[in-house]
């Protein structure tokens, strides 16, 4: 079990994940503000993000990393107090 998420929920994906510790930013829609987070693991279809607190994070947002060169639209699939499981949306998710 990792921070309240049981192993069964972590392993429902069909694609293997890559563990990373990469700083990223959540770009909140219509607020022009960002939240800092850490990408814990990533696949071609989504990621696990660690934040100080997930309260107030909307169901859809953009994730940016690599110093802002990459932006990915995301949809929240699951959440705990400090973790978000997100699916990448749109064309970029098919890469």
Biggest sheet architecture? 6 strands, antiparallel, barrel
Using the alpha-carbon principal axes, give the shape.
globular
How many distinct helices?
1
| CATH fold group | Thrombin, subunit H
Structurally, how many domains make up the residues?
Answer: 1
Low-confidence sequence ranges = none
What gyration radius follows from the Cα positions, in whole Å?
Answer: 12 Å
What is the level-2 CATH architecture name? Beta Barrel
Beta-strand percentage range: over 45%
Number of strands: 6
CATH uppermost class? Mainly Beta
Order of helices and strands: HEEEEEE
Name given to the CATH homologous superfamily:
predicted glycosyltransferase like domains
Portion in helices: under 10%
Strand order of the largest sheet: 1-2-3-6-5-4
Arithmetic mean pLDDT: 82
Q: Report the oligomer.
A: single chain
C-alpha end-to-end distance: 30 Å
Structural class: mainly beta
Write the layout of secondary structure elements.
Elements: H1 7-10, E1 18-27, E2 34-42, E3 46-50, E4 60-65, E5 70-79, E6 83-88
Antiparallel strand pairs: 1-2, 1-4, 2-3, 3-6, 4-5, 5-6
Quickly describe the structure:
With 95 residues, the chain is mainly β. It has one domain: predicted glycosyltransferase like domains (Thrombin, subunit H).
Structure description:
The N and C termini lie far apart (30 Å). The chain is globular and about 35 Å long. With 95 residues, the protein is mainly β. The protein has one domain (7-94): Thrombin, subunit H (Beta Barrel). Strands 1-2-3-6-5-4 form a 6-stranded antiparallel β-barrel. The protein is built from 1 helix and 6 strands; from the N terminus they run H-E-E-E-E-E-E. It has one helix spanning 7-10; strands at residues 18-27, 34-42, 46-50, 60-65, 70-79, 83-88.
């Amino acid at each position: 079990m990792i921070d309240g998420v049981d192993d069964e929920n972590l392993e429902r994906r069909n694609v293997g994940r890559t563990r990373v510790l990469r700083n990223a930013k959540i770009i909140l829609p219509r607020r022009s503000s960002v939240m800092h987070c850490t990408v814990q693991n990533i696949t071609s279809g989504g990621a696990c993000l660690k934040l100080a607190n997930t309260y107030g994070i909307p169901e859809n947002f953009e994730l940016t990393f690599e110093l802002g060169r990459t932006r990915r639209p995301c949809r929240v699939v699951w959440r705990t107090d400090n973790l978000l499981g997100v699916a990448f949306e749109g064309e970029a998710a098919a890469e």
